[in-house]
Amino acid sequence: MKELALKYGCNPNQKPSRIYMEEGELPIEVLNGRPGYINFLDALNSWQLVKELKQATGLAAAASFKHVSPAGAALGLPLSDTLRKIYFVDDLGIELSPIASAYARARGADRMSSYGDFVALSETCDEATALLLKREVSDGVIAPDYTEKALEILREKRKGTYNVIKIDPTYTPAPVERKQVFGITFEQGRNEIRLDDPSLFENIPTQNKTFTAEARRDLIVALITLKYTQSNSVCYVKDGQAIGIGAGQQSRIHCTRLAGQKADIWWLRQHPKVMGLPFVDGIRRADRDNTIDIYISDDHDDVLRDGEWQKFFKEQPAVLTREEKKEWIAQNTNVALGSDAFFPFGDNVERAHKSGVQYIAQAGGSVRDDHVIMTCDKYGIAMTFTGVRLFHH
After folding, report:
1. 43, 139, 53, 68: which is closest to 98 by C-alpha?
2. Spatial separation of the C-alpha atoms in residues 49 and 302, rounded to whole Å
3. Is the pTM for the entire model greater than 0.90?
4. Which ranges in the chain belong to alpha helices (H)?
5. Residue numbers annotated as active site
6. Are 346 and 374 in contact (CB under 8 A)?
7. pLDDT given at position 1
8. How does pLDDT run across 270-279, given as a tens digit for each residue?
9. What single-letter DSSP state applies at residue 305?
10. Is residue 92 scored above 90 in pLDDT?
11. How many other CB atoms are there within 10 angstroms of residue 11's CB atom?
12. Local structure of residue 183 (DSSP, 8 states)
């Protein structure tokens, strides 16, 4: 198949719409549903991310995309009992495969942002992964293949309209890419830089020059995630998964704050008070996620006041106080942070430190590098200057 007609472009008024190949055949096959323009943007960007994560680490990888940026990205590492519970996969009843674990992590990191996501899997989608996908609000999935059982499960989702795309894992695009803006064609070489290159860790200007193997892995996850995130962007990673992504902000510090806030929420969801919330029976997953998000925030009264808490809980929970939140967040450690360009000021490091960051990878090259280094040294943070900018638009 050389081209595929689409219902419309980014918006219903943008017609006609299609995807096509100037040379050769499309490397994708639609197995179910009718993916749209934005679906394919998410699918193809997310596929590149998980393919690159797999190449760099040798592990299964998954991504949860919304509006051409990842809401989550993760490797297929085993889940602790705590993560199984906060990702709501502890009741599945079957063992999670590496690719199912990767998706549970990618989807679970920021469930609010992942609502209605498009999913990418680096491996064949198996039954366990399909069962996880079936229970979530999602627009579609792209993977190199599907087992018969997985395909059967996914074809039943959304009354048979769920988008399922199979991609040729051997497909390699042309080295030059083009797009049009306002009738003008832009052309550039594809960003083929390898982010698992050991040379990225050679320029370490901080006093602490020690990066554990896990820290290097997590920084590689952060950098590859940033490579496919709308800039400006910052990514916090822990234990092989993104826990906070700040995308598309005009100011670098706003990226760092946004991603840090998401990382804090991820960590706060593991607080005993949050894990023990007495939800009413039958509460919808989206309502539960939204309630947790509000409960953790300063707007907690919106779900705890009389007349409101009864809608969500069997009994009125105690407030998670600011002091309790601050104390709990202080226990988060060994977090890695990547930035798609240099930090212009040390304020980014100050904010990152509050969310447990101990390892940083950033391009370097700011006129205030000395201040950034000094701030890292104040907290014993190890930082590498990669010399690589990863803007993505």
Report:
1. 53
2. 38
3. yes
4. 37-57, 81-86, 98-108, 111-114, 127-134, 148-154, 213-227, 252-268, 272-275, 285-296, 301-304, 322-329, 347-354, 369-379
5. 66-67, 232, 393
6. yes
7. 84
8. 999 999 999 9
9. S
10. no
11. 9
12. T
